[in-house]
Amino acid sequence: MAKQTIIPFGPQHPVLPEPVHLDLVVEDETVVQAIPRIGFVHRGLEKLVEKKDYTQFVFVTERICGICSFGHSLGYSQTIEHLMGIEVPPRAEYLRVILHELSRVHSHLLWLGLGADAFGFENLFMQCWRIRERVLDIFEKTTGGRVVLSACNVGGTLYDIDDETLKGICATLDVVRREYDAILGAFLNDYSVRSRLEGVGYLSQQQARDLSIVGPFARASNVNNDVRCLRQGGYAYLESFEPIMSDGGDCLARVIVRAKEVYQSIDIIKELAAKIPAGPVMNAPKGKPAAGTQASMRLEQPRGECYYYAKGNGSMFLERMRIRTPTSQNLGGLVVALAGCDLADVPNIVLTIDPCISCTER
Amino acid sequence: MSHSSKSPWLIHYDASSCNGCDIEVLACLTPMYDVERFGIINTGNPKHADIFLVTGSVNDQNIKVVQQIYEQMREPKVVIACGVCACSGGIFKECYNTLGGVDMAIPVDVYAPGCAVRPEAIIDAVVKGLGILEQKRAALDAAKSKKKEA
Predict the structure, then answer these.
(1) Is the ipTM of this complex over 0.85?
(2) Using H for helix, E for strand and C for coil, what is the string for A196-239?
(3) Which one of 3.40.50.12280, 3.10.620.30, 2.60.40.10, 3.40.50.2300 gives the CATH number of domain B3-149?
(4) In the list A137, A163, A178, A324, which could disulfide-bond A307, CB 3.0-4.6 Å?
(5) Pick from A42, A147, A356: which is nearest to B59 by CB?
(6) Once rounded to an integer, what is the mean pLDDT over residues B52-60?
């Protein structure tokens, strides 16, 4: 047996925009075991519910993560709406889904770029981020923010997007689709990319099920847990929804699932923008969450299912707010996928689960 | 002007940011803003870097990491606090696990506010940082020649 060595990976590492530490136990060039250590980004923001009231806290949830920022404000708002029985105007439901799916497009493009950087294709990284800027321009035009949108609050959305702008968004998305078509071939057909991804970091369907993996990571192992299938909120207005699945289980399958989800999100936005009803966008909440009431909510974030739980105590402040984020589920799968891989594939596999450490640690 | 202040290399570390500022730092490098055309490169090696970009506030766990990276960097060096969390702790100032801005850990030269900090603000801060880098270099050179004379 070869001698075992431990190689520390992170918290500061060129491939990681975020700090996570892995102790890689290696025998020669093969990773035998990966031991993650987290806690560099923990802020303890769930406890802030005691200092910010329930309408202010939405702005804290937005800052759980800068990539799925809108999703967190949406998930939190929906939970509080359940808790207090607030009816959301249909137009707001449409707008929320449109903004949420735009976030997914920007998140997946961001990830595809980082993924390309991890397997050493820097040009592709730049191309992905160039296209992503178009989505950020839409955000900036409609809400004023590029990253943190502050567009969602309990009861609806804070801004309306008029129909003319929605048409403009669809036109921009056509451009995004055209440009995306042009680079997608590099991910799917380029032989050197395939040779880096195919068969690397395999996770079987059974393993994905056992470890409760969520999001595109699970769907690439043929486990469907897309929360959008439940058709909650604005997703109820869609004609049909088919989750994107793959049975590959390797890095390539994860790339393909996310790559196709970009098209799916563009289709969802265009469908909803075409039939959005007129009306108000905000049903301002009145009163306080009653003591002892509880509510929970699930939302499909770009990285997978996110679970929200809230408990009221009769004041403007919540008793408890709990968020279980997708990456905290997926880290278990990462450790399994890393076991037995080559040391040079580690950055690749770490990135294909699309880790979001600041979500995980909050 | 020396070479490094014409084309400084950066190192970026996410202390406990929400990612918002991190992706804006990366966005600066990509085609829309493209600071690489000025020779600014994001490096992973502290000893290669002239400018240290920190996003997010510090806590007990990462304060040592921030200090280690700072200490490994060669003189002259400039620290830029990117985003309101790095400047003061921002919205998370009241959290139990947040000590405050990056200046709790290391001396900060330029503060770039914003939540998330805009790429224009980052570029502006880096340009300001270049001036400070040049001053620090001049001070170092002056000290060196003084030593020689003595």
Answers:
(1) no
(2) HHCCCCCCCHHHHHHCCCCHHHHHCCCCCCCHHHHCCHHHHHCC
(3) 3.40.50.12280
(4) A324
(5) A42
(6) 87
